[in-house]
Structures are given as C-alpha cells and as structure tokens.
Amino acid sequence: MTKVDFYTGVEDKLRTACKLSHKAVKHGMRVQLYCTDAETTQVLDTLLWSYPTTAFLPHCRNDEKDASEMSVVLTYPQKVSSVNKSSASGENSVLDENFIHGKTFPHNEVLISLHSTCLPFFSHFERVIEIVGLDAADAHTGRERFSFYRDRGYEMRHFDLRPQSVQKNST
Predict the structure, then answer these.
(1) Tens digits of per-residue pLDDT, 112-124?
(2) How far apart are CA 171 and CA 48, in angstroms?
(3) Is 89 in a helix, a strand, or coil?
(4) What is the pTM of this model?
C-alpha cells in the first residue's frame, strides 16, 4: 500500500521539492515531480539545474526519451484535443486519460505532488509526498488531502517544517 508523507509549513514549496528529490535520489529512489502547470514545471526545472549547489541532480521532463532512465522526472497535466468533450471552461480539450490513470509514468517509486488536490493516480506509487505551504488556503487544502488519505487507511507521516519561532508562537 502507498505510504504518504506530509511536509507542512513550507516557506518555498519548489525548493523543498528539490531538497526532497535530492534526499530520495541519495537513498536510491526515483522521483516523479508532479507540477500544477507548464510554468511551474519550467521554474522547477531551472531550480534543479542548480540544486544542490555542490552536486548535480539528473532530471528531465516526462515526455523526453530518457525519462525511463532518469532519477528525477518532472511533469504536469497534459491536455489533448477532443472535439467530442468540453471542459468546464468551454475549451475543447481534456486531460490525457493515460496520464490520469498513471499509464505514462516512467516508474512508480516516489511521487512528489505540488497540487492542491489528491491526484487520481497516487496509488500507483510506493510513496507520495505532499508539500503544504504556509498560507491559509494551502494549509486548508493540505488538511483536506491529509483527511482523504487518513480516512482511507494509508500509512501517514507528518513533518512540520515551519521555522522554530513560528512553531513556538502557535502553541
């Protein structure tokens, strides 16, 4: 069964994703970084080229030919054209069904999610890492995701990354 780790109180979600990716790779695991959109994916891709400053973290995008051999793979929801289906926004596109159901991932070891909802394919992975920021809206959706996993019996761990001064003031 998938194990779920929550990292909450995060000041910089993208840097935390880099740090956790690096840690997983050092332990011999491969990581799928699932971003919200193309822009976030590009920013994270750029960060990974310089993180950590004393080493290199091999990575690529999900659609590149070397993805199945790479330690860290970045991706985001891809849309495919569909004349028969319309989205809520009226666009003639839907998310790639193979992608939604986890059929296009190069591995199933670690999924780091930067989304505000539980991903429909999370159970294809051995471990899921959810990163929750400091703002109230992100904390709220993080609690909803935590409840979702807990209510379904997934093994959970929680890591509070808030600065010590913030932790002391909230108790």
Answers:
(1) 999 999 998 999 9
(2) 35
(3) coil
(4) 0.83
